[in-house]
Amino acid sequence: MENRADIREFLVTRRAKLRPEDTGLPDFGGMRRVPGLRREEVALLAGVSVEYYTRLERGGLAGVSDSVLDALVRALQLDEAEREHLFDLARAAGPAPKSARKKRGQVSPSLQRLLDGMTGTPAFIRNGRLDILAINALGQMLYSEAFVGSERPVNLARFCFFDEGARRLYPDWQKAAETSVALLHTEAGRDPSNEQLTELVGELSTRSEDFRSLWARHDVRLHRSGYKEFRHPAVGDLRLSFDALSLPAERGLTLTAYSAEPNTPSEPRMRRLAELTFGADGRAAEATTAAN
Fold first, then answer.
1. Residue 94 and residue 97: Cα distance in Å, rounded?
2. pTM of the full predicted structure?
3. Whether 90 contacts 69, CB under 8 Å
């Protein structure tokens, strides 16, 4: 897989974020042609020659040892997500494995039953390109703005950048947009042969200036736990904890579940959302939990 451009953009953007004073290097002043560190400064910090680092930055990560990659991690002060992305880029730059490519994960009936059994927790299963492949009733109620249209599966990136409902659902739309783009960049490094992902990025880049600007930053993110804010049209503002769990048996799929912290304003609002979903007798108001 040819990913030299992705490698170059990632290393250049990481280098641009650092100044000599951030790394302990002396700043001798003078005009800098590019923001951030110079190549020779990164090479010095990583303990490699300038010529070798230049080759790496031009996309030559194929066959590079883990020790050199870790030296780049230290020199560029990469966080955990950026480190994983760098190693993904290096793996993708190497020769393709001789074994057949593993089939990407699919949502089995048992996984859908698992989601449906989580009646008090909004939950869904997505793939790396942010398609919602399965969702439970409470999750669909939470994301009701995204399910207004008829296109299935719902894609959270398209929803974020193309649908006005996203700006109503996400009080901090900018943060939601940055997260979506970072997740797509992370997946592109992990699975560069995914043609559907490439097509999605092309579509988003063509149609959204906001997406193009964020994509050029080449930020990546691990989205395992944290908080997400919603402004639901029926119950108002919600600040929910999320946990995102990779499904080992289904390559590339992630189960995301939300919960309200006890004794917060979001707790009774979540209960109200459940009542709207299932009714007072606890039965689902609509049996539409499938995402596609």
1. 9
2. 0.88
3. yes
